[in-house]
Amino acid sequence: MKRYQMILLALLVSTLAVLAWPELTHRNEGRSLARGSVGNGTLENGWLLPYYGKNYRYFSPLSYYILNRGYVHHRVHKVLLEAYATCETTCPEVRFRLMECANKHGGAMWPHRTHQVGLSADFMVPKLRNGRPHRQLDQLGIWHYALSFNEHGQLSDRVKIDFETMAKHLLALDDAARANGLSVRKVILKLDLKDDFFATQSGQEVKRRGIYFARSLPPLVNELHDDHYHVDFGR
User: Is the Cα torsion angle 120, 147, 91, 51 positive or negative in sign?
Assistant: First the structure.
């Protein structure tokens, strides 16, 4: 490698290290404080979620280390990790992908309309290919938001959304939220997908519990929530 290439590489590595320093050195301690609403507020003492665990992984190093979007309220931090622990038993073959949460200090986070106080999180839809868990598309990072599923959750003849696993995850989130003084206040999923979701066995239990799904959405917001589901937690 030529000298100038080595210099450029060293500069690149140094720049990335500086940008990722807040996440590399962050320590979770104390209590978080959410001020305002999910659509207009701030987060004090946000807790950073682990980049990965036994059965989950944050979906994008760019979003996590550079854009700093892996923070949540300390209670939500506990809820998410407890739910994933439950899913190790309820759906052991699944490897989940956690998507964008909040900035360290909350506030506006383009292009999201909420995610401002650490009480919101996006979750990548689990997928099946020929009836088996399918993870190849999970590697797309932020480009996963651009995937387009049809009204029955199909991306192709072979790949479709695993609504049963998605429902099991929501039930685990609901249980963990209740145990930690929170609730699942709202779920946002593309409206056309709700019938297929509630047709599953676990989806029927979600409905029985009365977990609220948005009933109407602006067209653009609706179209963007086919590849992931958004959850707002409340107190």
Answer: negative
Residue with tokens 């320093």: 21
Mean pLDDT of the region 200-225 = 96
Q: Domain with 160 in it: what CATH number?
A: 3.30.1380.10
- Asked if residue 122 is part of any domain, the answer here is yes
User: How far is residue 167's CA from residue 4's CA, in Å, rounded to a whole number?
Assistant: 53
Does residue 206 belong to any structural domain of this protein?
yes
Tell me, yes or no, if the pTM score tops 0.85: yes
Decide if 55 contacts 84 (C-beta within 8 A).
yes
Is residue 21 in a domain? no
